[in-house]
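JOB MANIFEST
job_type = single_chain_structure
chain_count = 1
residues = 329
[input]
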Amino acid sequence: MNDDDVLAWLADSDPSLRWKVERDLLDAPEERWRAIRARVAHEGFGARLLAAQGDDGLWAGGAHFPADFTGQEPQPWTATSWSLMSLREWGVDATALRPDTAGLLERNARWEYEDRPFWHGEVDACINAFTLASGAWLGADVDGIRTWFVAHRLPDGGWNCEWVEGSTRSSFHSTINSVIGILDDEWRTGGTPELHAARKAAEEYLLERRLLHRLSTGERHVWAHHLGYPFRFRYSALRALDHFRAAALHDGDDPDPRLTDAIDRVRASRDPDGTWHQAYPPEGREWFPVDVPAGEPSRWLTFFALRVLRWWDGASGTSRAGDGRDAAG
């Protein structure tokens, strides 16, 4: 496929992706991409996932795990935290969920860890990041989670979900989830100065490692090259670059030159047909597949890669930069 063919292929997609393609790659007028975005709640992936929400506000009867989860299978993706993440990232308006979903979850949802109230957060940095962003989206009181992130940032700059087991070194995975959630909160609510400073310091942790490398040895993490969608909790160079694009647009910053290695890695992973392929879709139950099996060309990954490269190249004057980002995209 030539570039025009790839763009046409991307535009021929579920509304949850198509509105992003129209806005960030095709430069569609705002009224056009917003009209497509409004369809997400009524057709395709968004409508199907909204229909799975229970009368109690939950999905699959659980906060992070479905009610019938026994621990004898891979992590399922059907419970409330994962479902909220998908709807939010697809651009569904909060009003499309059951009325007072934030209140329903306050009354009915408890974390599987120590039976904690849903909007109070958990001890896991990744779960708290998802919950912070979802709470900001739904209008819940998540001030406690904002404070938690400031208090639990590790000395080297980021976060690690294993801190409760004694870990004192940050994790790529935990840190990328955290900064994404914090930025989403900033887009929607303004956040807090303390949390903004924590995000910037954690981004520095990733930049010092050029998104790919161990700081101590310079060794490149092999898993950072593997691209898969849905991203969910998993780190990849592409996901990190997508965050740094969003953060730069939000903060008014130029692209950091320390992103160069990761940009080169993403550019080099493009297939001869002009697409990026799915490396390893996660195991585990899901409501329905939203992307292709491993080895096939992925519309989602191709979109994210082209958007990141357009932003990067545009900043160098070789192509026009993207149209920006709102909290859903």
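[summary]
The longest helix spans residues 172-189.
The radius of gyration is 19 Å.
exit_status = 0
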